């Protein structure tokens, strides 16, 4: 039972290859191109979302040029496509693996920290001791702030992975129990599955937004 339950998160397609990771790039292939005389609905939706994200990230970063927000908008788009692809039947969910999420979170956090400590050393030191901290508590505050900085990539990765796994496991459990359940209860199970699907769609969007917003906030500190 447990083996079948977690088999949906197995990237291996054989004893040698892990071809399921290819689904990570399906979203990039499906991004619509502007070949229409008039923009189609998907293009209009994507443009509206990106313009809204640009306005919000611009406020968080305190910049005016589009280049500074481009990386975070790209990160949001990449994550939301992978989360959405995982909702389709028989499609591997890349964002349910720590390998995928840590690959996004760790290099981003490391580059932010290196940039901050190399170019704004004094500014980074001031972040370790909040304003108004009593002198006797300063060593403890430095320790606490250092630990909180070190666990940031882990918290970003685990948050996205855990949220994607939780809903998929619940839907798998309901699907497995519906096989041996009374026929009278199948409509109830189906209704719950539809509600869970709507909930998981919302989670897929929210988690992509949370990941990109927190990355933007970490960037704005340096």
What structural keywords apply?
9 helices, 69% helix, globular, mainly alpha, 222 residues
Q: Structural class per helix/strand content?
A: mainly alpha
| Helix/strand order, N-terminal first | HHHHHHHHH
> What is the strand content?
under 5%
Q: What is the molecular shape? A: globular
How would you sum up the major sheet? none
Multimeric organization: single chain
Give the tally of structural domains: 1
**DSSP helical segment count:** 9
End-to-end separation in angstroms reads 48 Å
Radius of gyration: 21 Å
Indicate the mean pLDDT: 79
Give the low-confidence spans. Answer: none
Q: Helix content range of the residues, please?
A: 55-70%
Number of strands: 0
Explain what this protein looks like in three dimensions:
With 222 residues, the protein is mostly helical. The chain has one domain (7-221). It has 9 helices and no strands. It has helices at residues 2-6, 26-30, 41-61, 67-85, 98-119, 121-128, 138-150, 152-177, 186-220. Helix 3 (41-61) packs across helix 4 (67-85) and helix 5 (98-119) packs antiparallel against helix 8. The longest helix is centred in the last third of the chain and has 35 residues, at 186-220. It is globular and about 70 Å long.
């Amino acid at each position: 039972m447990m083996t079948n339950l977690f088999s949906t998160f197995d990237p291996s397609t054989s004893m040698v290859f892990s071809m399921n990771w290819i689904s990570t790039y399906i979203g990039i292939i499906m991004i619509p191109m502007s070949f229409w005389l008039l923009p189609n609905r998907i293009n209009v939706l994507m443009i509206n979302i990106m313009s809204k994200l640009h306005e919000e990230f611009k406020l968080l970063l305190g910049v005016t040029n589009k280049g500074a927000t481009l990386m975070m908008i790209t990160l949001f788009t990449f994550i939301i496509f992978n989360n959405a692809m995982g909702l389709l039947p028989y499609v591997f969910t890349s964002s349910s693996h720590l390998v995928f999420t840590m690959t996004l979170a760790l290099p981003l956090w490391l580059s932010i920290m290196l940039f901050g400590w190399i170019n704004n050393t004094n500014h980074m030191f001031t972040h370790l001791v909040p304003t108004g901290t009593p002198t006797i508590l300063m060593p403890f505050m430095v320790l606490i702030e250092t630990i909180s900085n070190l666990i940031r990539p882990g918290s970003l990765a685990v948050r996205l992975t855990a949220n994607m796994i939780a809903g998929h496991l619940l839907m798998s459990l309901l699907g497995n129990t519906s096989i041996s359940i009374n026929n009278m209860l199948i409509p109830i199970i189906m209704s719950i599955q539809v509600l869970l699907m709507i909930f998981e769609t919302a989670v897929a969007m929210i988690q992509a937004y949370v990941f990109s917003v927190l990355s933007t906030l970490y960037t704005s500190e340096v």
